[in-house]
Design goal:
Layout lengths: L3 H19 L1 H115 L3 H18 L1
C-alpha cells in the first residue's frame, strides 16, 4: 500500500513535530545565538588586544628611538670630552716644555754669569799678582810698600 518513502516522510514529519513540541528549535536558535555572542565577544577582545599590542609596540619603538638618541648624545658627549681632555693634555705638555726650557735657559744664564764672575776673579787675581810683581821690582822702600798695598786694595775692589 504505501511505499517506504511515504513512511520515511511520515516518520520525518513526526520527528520534526516532536522536536518542535519539546522546543528543540528554540534551544538550537538560543545555542546558535549564544555561540554568536561568544564569537562576537572573542572578536571584540581580540580587537582590543590587537590595539593594545599595537600601542605597546609603538611605545616600545618610541622608547627605542629615545634610547638611540640618548646613546648618540652620550657618544657625542664622550667624544667632545675626549677631545677636550686631549687638548688640555697637549696644552699642559706645551706648558711643561716651556717651563723646562725656561728653567734650562735660566740655569745656563746663571752658569754663564758664574763663569764670567770666576773668569773676572781669576783675571783680577792674576792682574793683582802681576801688578804686585811689577811694582815690587820698580818701586822700593816704605813709599813703595804703602803705594803697593793701596793699589792692590783698589784694584781688588774695582775688579770684583
Amino acid at each position: 500500500m504505501f511505499e517506504a518513502e511515504f513512511w520515511v516522510a511520515i516518520a520525518f514529519l513526526l520527528f520534526i513535530g516532536v522536536l518542535g513540541y519539546f522546543g528543540a528549535h528554540k534551544r538550537l536558535v538560543n545555542s546558535i545565538d549564544d555561540r554568536r555572542e561568544r564569537i562576537k565577544a572573542e572578536l571584540a577582545e581580540a580587537r582590543r588586544l590587537k590595539s593594545e599590542a599595537e600601542a605597546l609596540l609603538a611605545s616600545y619603538r618610541r622608547k627605542q628611538q629615545e634610547a638611540e638618541r640618548e646613546a648618540q648624545t652620550i657618544v657625542a658627549s664622550a667624544k667632545s670630552e675626549a677631545e677636550r681632555l686631549a687638548d688640555e693634555a697637549e696644552a699642559k705638555i706645551e706648558e711643561f716644555v716651556l717651563r723646562r726650557t725656561k728653567m734650562a735657559e735660566t740655569k745656563i744664564a746663571q752658569a754663564e754669569a758664574q763663569a764670567v764672575a770666576d773668569v773676572r776673579s781669576a783675571a783680577s787675581e792674576v792682574a793683582v799678582a802681576a801688578a804686585e810683581a811689577i811694582l815690587t821690582r820698580s818701586v822700593k822702600g816704605k813709599v813703595a810698600d804703602d803705594l803697593l798695598a793701596k793699589g792692590i786694595a783698589d784694584l781688588k775692589a774695582k775688579l770684583n
